[in-house]
Write a structure and sequence with these properties.
CATH superfamily: Gcn5-related N-acetyltransferase (GNAT)
Distance between the termini: 23 Å
Radius of gyration: 15 Å
Number of domains: 1
Shape: globular
Number of strands: 6
Structural class: alpha+beta
Number of helices: 4
Oligomer: single chain
Order of helices and strands: HHEEEHEHEE
Amino acid sequence: MTEADLDVVLEIERAAYPFPWTPGNFRDCMRSGYLCLTAWIEAARVGYLIAAPMVDEMHVLNCCVAPAWQRRGLGVAMMRHLMGRLGEVGATRLLLEVRESNVAARGLYHRLGFVEVGRRRGYYPAADGREDARVLVWEEKRNKTHQ
């Protein structure tokens, strides 16, 4: 992902989420050296993934597929790509938060071998206040068959 991708990424973000990230959120991630990737089909950007390397893990901050391209395996492909790159930063696990109400994403992560390890109360903004996040972890040593 580069600054040149930002307009399309923001378009996808705004179409997919009721409480989208700001342009500054994306710029901060790019400036911080996080792994910021875009997914393409032919000449169209159809998704993106942002992950922050930590000591021995990658924290997935945002993984999004444009609504018109969802349910075609792109989210799985992006996550598998990230799993394949963990060794580049010496990581062996992925950590992420997902909205409790996002049943589709939770199913995707479960199929990839993620397990729930906790909750963050009131983590996400919601139309009626705040929504809890489920904290999920994927560990390489436990999930060799899911890659």
